[in-house]
Structures are given as C-alpha cells and as structure tokens.
Amino acid sequence: MEELLTLKDLLIKGDIKGSLTIVEELVEMGRKDIIKTIRSYGVILLLHLIKQKAENRTTRSWDISIRNSVLEIQEENKRSESGGFYLPPEELNLVLESAYRQAINKASLEVAEGRYEVRELEQLVNKQELINLAMNLITQIEESTEG
C-alpha cells in the first residue's frame, strides 16, 4: 500500500498534518471495504429472502445461505478492539437498501425459473418488509453472539 509508505515518510519528516491526512484516507478506504463486503452479503441475504417470499417456500440451501450471510455481515460489522459496530443500524439499513436493487435483479433470474421480469417480481414482494426482516435477522444474531 502506497499510502503506508507515504505515511512512514511523513512521520519520519515530522509532518503530523500530512500524516493525519493519510491516516484519514486509510480509515476511509477501510470503511469503504467493510461497506462493500457487507453490501455483497446483503445482496445474498436479500436474494434468498425475496425467493422465499415470492415462491412462498424455502429450501435448506436458502436457509443456510441466509444464516451464513447474516453471520458474515455481523462478523464484518463488528469492531474487534473497541467493541461496537462499524455501521450503526441506520447506516446498515441504507446499505441493505442499496443492495436490494441487485438482489431483486438476481432474483428475477431465479424465482420460478426466471419467469418474472424485475417489475413483476417487485409486485410480489414488499421491499421494506424484506429489508426490515433482514435487519431483524442481523440484530437477532448480533444479540445472541454477545455475552
């Protein structure tokens, strides 16, 4: 990482202001990576919730995928040293909302063997209900892993 080498040089030169700028850039890069990972697992989580709702059934594979996605989101979001979470619930909800578009697109290829266009599939499911369900699952796992 070029930023770390630059940071090292700035620290050696005693340039605290420049060093802090690099540190802020590194923090932002790390945060973006965390959000990207959470969003990717959010897509998988929402995809399977959409499939469950639209087909009014579930499979063991979908259930496991949902559980694994929730666990991965929680693991990625948990701050290891300071405790707490990188994304508070409001921001996590926004990430799930942004993941929904990709999830519904993917689901249109899988629900009922791809029979529905995205617009048709959106009529079969309630976006906010599914996002709320995803948030509840994430919170439920979060609470059961604390303590």
TrEMBL record:
Q: What is this protein called?
A: DUF29 domain-containing protein
Q: Pfam families, alphabetically?
A: DUF29
Enumerate the Gene3D superfamilies for this protein. Uncharcterised protein PF01724 (1.20.1220.20)
The family database entries (InterPro entries) matched by this protein are listed as: DUF29
Q: Which domain of life is it from?
A: Bacteria
